[in-house]
Amino acid sequence: KNRIPRKEFTTVVKSARAYHSPYFTLRIRSSYDKEHHFSFVVSKKVAQKAVVRNLIRRRCYEAVRTLFPALKISIAAIFYTKKEATTLRYVGIKQEIEHLLQKSGVMKKD
Q: How do residues 9-38 score in pLDDT, each as one tens digit?
């Protein structure tokens, strides 16, 4: 899997650049190896029920997985979910993630 290991999490947070949207905050930096690594943080403030938090997280991981071919460089990215993201369906989540990755300059132009 392409998740950020716990031991690398603080390193990524400290040395990453931040990008914001109404639904997510993205912390991103170049990867510590040659692969893409992503993590999604969905706190209890965003959704009280674990079922909802896990649903959001699964949708986000799937959206990112489909965007792998469009990435220019190997990156380590952490997406912090905001409360408004609970209203999004899969398509909306994918569009928001794609927008943030384009804003950060790591996606190839179509």
A: 888 888 889 999 999 999 999 887 888 899
